[in-house]
Amino acid sequence: MDPTEPRLSTSALLTIDMQNDFVLPGAPGCVAGTSEVVSQVSELVGVWRRAALPVIHVVRLYLPDGSNADLCRRARLAAGASIVRPATSGAELVTPLKIDPAQTLDPELLLSGKAQRLAEDEFVVYKPRWGAFFRTVLEDLLATLAVDTLVVCGCNFPNCPRATLYQASERDFRLIAVTDALSRLGPRDHADLTGIGIRLRSVSELEREMAPPSI
Questions:
Q1: Do the Cβ atoms of 36 and 43 come closer than 8 Å?
Q2: Are 166 and 14 in contact (CB under 8 A)?
Q3: Tens of pLDDT, residues 35-44
Q4: Domains of the chain by start residue, with CATH
């Protein structure tokens, strides 16, 4: 069997940076094209929830002084920009991804390096840099959940999703990038991903693959 072939029965869905400040038009960190993939990401979250498979929301939290942000972001944050600042509405997951609209992130827990459990099979993990595996509990959490396949969707492919996919490939995960649920993913990126064994799927293709067999 091809060692890169995804196994959806032992998969987890990763949503990347689907937070108000990155998604909502007019928000201080809004990434072009991200509001347009919210419905697709929400659809995938629903598919994984119904299958009782893990959903992990990977998020950013920028301290007011910018000290925990990437170097290229620190000056703007230190100058007063409030982007995904802990305990603000801008840092929260966009409402369509929430189990309960009233549910909020626990910034103290997340910044301490622990995963926040939202439901039996749903978690939030904070990442301090582009890739979701860098100085995070993600790899240990996935091992606990017996996950060997990751399905990646969310915000701003050139930065955090791409870094996450490459880090996951280095850790021998089987990988799927969801082409219509990743903002700023372009056709020329497809060959780069398939060249290292990452499979490309659309939301509708995954829905068909995840559908229970007809009786």
A1: no
A2: no
A3: 999 999 999 9
A4: 8-19+34-59+93-123+130-210 (3.40.50.850)
Contact 167, 134 (CB under 8 A): yes
Distances in Å between the Cα of 110 and the Cα atoms of 41, 150, 151, 185, 197 are 22, 21, 22, 28, 31
pLDDT at 1: 77
**Is 13:44 a contact under the CB 8 Å cutoff?**
yes
SS3 track for the chain: CCCCCCCHHHEEEEEECCEHHHHCCCCCCCCCCCHHHHHHHHHHHHHHHHCCCCEEEEECCCCCCCCCCCHHHHHHHHCCCCCCCCCCHHHCECHHHCCCCCCCCCHHHHHCCCCEEEECCEEEEECCCCCCCCCCCHHHHHHHCCCCEEEEEECCCCCHHHHHHHHHHHCCCEEEEEEEEECCCCHHHHHHHHCCCCEEECHHHHHHHHCCCCC
Q: How confident is the model at residue 214 (pLDDT cuts 50, 70, 90)?
A: low
Q: What is the pLDDT of residues 56-102, one digit of tens each?
A: 999 999 999 999 999 999 999 999 999 999 999 999 999 999 999 99
Read off the tokens for 122. Answer: 């749903």
Q: Answer whether residue 215 shows pLDDT above 90.
A: no
